[in-house]
Amino acid sequence: MDWTMILVFSGLSIFSGVLVGLGTLSVVRAICTALIFLGCAVTMLLMELGVDEILSFFLGQIIVVGSTYIYLKVVHPEILNEVKKEYIYDGPSHGC
């Protein structure tokens, strides 16, 4: 089995999560970015196990991001309200 891409996406998950968190000063955005790359790592793992490429992409994201969403919806719904506030559009952007 070639674990290179799985390790790359796992490393990107950690590195990009920290980078986005420090760049935006937002823990919520850091966790969301890390979850997306962890979904890609699960996708590559499923592909190595023989699942179809297109199906494995959707399954990888559903397994990681979907299970996190369901957990937060059931156990900590107040966190989802914080995430909603973080990503809501509140007027025109003024650039950096």
Which structural traits does this protein have?
globular, 96 residues, mainly alpha
Per-chain topology:
Elements (H helix, E strand, L loop, with lengths): L3 H21 L2 H22 L4 H23 L1 H11 L9
Helix pairs in contact: 1-2, 2-3, 3-4
Compute the CA-based radius of gyration. Answer: 15 Å
The main pleated sheet reads as:
none
- Assign an overall shape: globular
Mean pLDDT: 89
N-to-C series of helices and strands: HHHH
Unreliably modeled segments = none
- The percent of residues in helical segments reads over 70%
Q: In terms of structural class, how would the helical and strand content be classed? A: mainly alpha
Bin the strand percentage. Answer: under 5%
- Treating each run of at least 4 consecutive H or I residues as one helix, how many helices? 4
State the total count of DSSP E strands.
Answer: 0
Question: In angstroms, what separates the terminal alpha carbons?
Answer: 44 Å
Describe this protein's structure.
It is a single chain. The chain is mostly helical and 96 residues long. It is 80% helix and 0% strand. It has helices at 4-24, 27-48, 53-75, 77-87. The longest helix is centred in the middle third of the chain and has 23 residues, at 53-75. It is globular, with a radius of gyration of 15 Å. The protein starts with a helix and ends in a 9-residue tail after the last helix. The relative contact order is 0.11.
